[in-house]
Design a protein that fits this description.
Structural class: alpha+beta
Bound molecules: adenosine-5'-triphosphate, magnesium ion
Helix content: 25-40%
Radius of gyration: 20 Å
Strand order of the largest sheet: 1-2-3-6-5-4
Strand content: 15-25%
Number of helices: 8
Number of strands: 9
Number of domains: 2
Order of helices and strands: HEEEHEEEEHHEEHHHH
Largest sheet: 6 strands, antiparallel
Length: 255
């Protein structure tokens, strides 16, 4: 369903729900509107939109009913041929992790830990089925020309249904592995001091993820690689060991 100009302008008048490096995202009820950062909601933009200067472009439904927050329509500037806005499937929930920049004061580390812990409590309480869906999404993507962007904010968890949604796919072919899912699930807090509550949650999450990978299996030999970066993100020894000792034992299914 196409949105009217008035509806788009209304949605863009509210505070964005997310700001990344490339785009600003606005809620649009059943959808989200993703606006590249090179576009601004200026008076000229509104005028162009109202005057029909931007044309709808329907995108092929590559992922069918699956929800990776993919664009369904683009609005294209008929003069520059640039995308001015994407209308995307809405994924429910909040980002499972955050970007924590260095250098950090002790107070900032504490705050980052608290934020991460409150998210990890919800992630760790997700049923095994949710982790299996996540691994199956990873498997599904090996057969497409899209890949995960394993940077912060690209995995959402719906606190009600406890389902995960990978968003912000890159339009390139690249095989990702369980380590990339670890990077999507957990926050990397540099120089983090000991924190038992954090460590317990981390181990619970990794245990559920590995169990899901073992029960689903993986579909591409490249998925059986270890991701050294994931070992940096994991803070506790038991979680590191759980990952190190198991990633190569996961069975390989024929696709
Ligand atoms: N389809 C979607 N459904 C729900 N929320 C979304 C959706 N797309 C984006 N968001 C929200 O906006 C935030 C930023 O979105 P996104 O990752 O797409 O932007 P980005 O500019 O590509 O970010 P980066 O390049 O830094 O990864 C997300 O973390 C999420 O909170
Ligand atoms: Mg992103």
């Amino acid at each position: 369903m196409k949105l009217t100009t008035a509806e788009i302008l209304n949605y863009l008048s509210y505070k964005p729900i997310g700001t990344g490096t490339e785009a600003v995202t606005y809620d649009a009820d059943k959808y989200v509107l993703r606006m590249p950062k090179y576009i601004k909601t200026t008076h000229q933009f509104k005028k162009n939109l109202s005057n029909g200067l931007y044309k709808y472009q329907k995108l092929p439904s590559v992922h069918k009913h699956k929800n990776f927050g993919q664009a369904i329509y683009n609005l294209i500037d008929t003069q520059t041929h640039k995308i001015v806005l994407s209308i995307c499937k809405k994924a429910h929930g909040f980002p499972t992790n955050d970007l924590v920049d260095m250098p950090l004061t002790e107070k900032q580390i504490q705050k980052a830990q608290q934020t991460a812990i409150s998210k990890m409590q919800i992630i760790a309480s997700a049923p095994q089925k949710s982790f299996k869906h996540l691994v199956n999404d990873l498997n599904y993507l090996t057969s497409t020309d899209f890949t995960i962007d394993p940077s912060e904010g690209n995995l959402l968890i719906d606190p009600k249904s406890k389902k995960f949604y990978i968003i912000d796919l890159r339009p390139v072919k690249k095989i990702r592995n369980i380590g990339d899912l670890i990077l999507l699930l957990l926050t990397d807090i540099p120089n983090m001091p000991g924190n038992n509550e954090y460590y317990d949650l981390e181990l619970k999450i990794i245990t559920k993820l590995i169990k899901a990978a073992k029960s689903c299996g993986l579909v591409h030999p490249k998925q059986l690689a270890i991701k050294p970066r994931a070992l940096e993100v994991l803070k506790s020894k038991p979680a590191k060991i759980m990952y190190k000792n198991n990633y190569h034992n996961i069975k390989l299914n024929k696709n």
